[in-house]
Amino acid sequence: MESKGLVKAVKPQPKKNLWKPEEDLVLKTYIETHGEGNWATVSKNSGLKRGGKSCRLRWKNYLRPNIKRGEMSEQEEDLIIRMHKLLGNRWSLIAGRLPGRTDNEIKNYWNTHLSKRHNGSKRKSVDYTSNHHEQKKKIRSSNSEIGPSKSSTCIEETTLVVRNEEEEDRNNINSWMDGIHRSFNCDTDYPTLVPENYNATFLFDDEPFITYLDSFLLVEELGFGWSGEEANSLMQVESCPNHVTGDFY
DNA sequence: AATGTTCCCAACCGCGAGAGT
DNA sequence: GACTCTCGCGGTTGGGAACAT
């Protein structure tokens, strides 16, 4: 039996195992040499005393090339808020729309900066009534009802190509796009939006439901000069509750 | 200066999905 | 079909910095 005093005298081992720079270097070198994947063997082969999950997380959230660190721009913040309003806590999907940002980073940013500000308008993508595991089940099953999903993973890179004949409007779009996601690289058979005047193409490599939501978001954000009605009819969304309203530009 | 409190965020955990056998 | 393994997701934890008293 241990007395309280004795327990207190023993310095507790830190529960968090922060990555050291030398470990980062080993992991980075290993992945640059062998490539990503099969994380279970990474720790064995690289000599790191870390689990595969830990290695994966460290690479994905910190060491991966093109990771954008530092403060969120106003545009990024705005996009997070809007996406969260539409998608709820689906951080990986939101992160997919913010190149260089990780789901963990966005989740943390929301929890520390934005959730308080937007507490009044707590809105989730499904009607949650039980614990989070139940919630996840609901999200997954609701998605499968909506349509087939190519993959459960988030889009690593989402790309939007905007080709505009009119210089002025192109500048409008580009100025908004600056700092958020200038180039999209999507390839799917899902709603392809090609407005007559704009020759803009939205192609998404993701769940159909999300595709629709994205389309709303982007139509609303980019303001393609459509009225809400025009946009709705273009996108054939009569069954979707999130109709675009109002006029743009 | 010392102590207490709050905030931030990297890392951990448990779970489900999908692939392979 | 049952089982195992790997991967990715979202929620939570806890160390430490920043701030307040």
TrEMBL record:
Domain of life from the UniProt record: Eukaryota
Localization annotation: Nucleus
Alphabetized SMART domains for the sequence: SANT
Gene Ontology molecular functions: transcription cis-regulatory region binding
Pfam families recorded: Myb_DNA-binding
Residues of the Myb-like domain: 11-63, 64-114
Keyword Ribonucleoprotein in record: no
Compositional bias ranges of the Basic and acidic residues kind: 124-133
Residue spans crossing the bilayer: none
PROSITE patterns noted in UniProt: HTH_MYB, MYB_LIKE
Coiled coil: none
Sequence segments annotated as region (Disordered): 117-151
Biased composition (Polar residues): 141-151
Gene3D superfamilies found in the cross-reference section: Homeodomain-like
CDD domains: SANT
One GO CC term on file: nucleus
Residues in HTH myb-type domain copies: 11-63, 64-118
Name the UniProt record assigns to this protein: Myb-related protein 123
Organism, scientific name: Quillaja saponaria
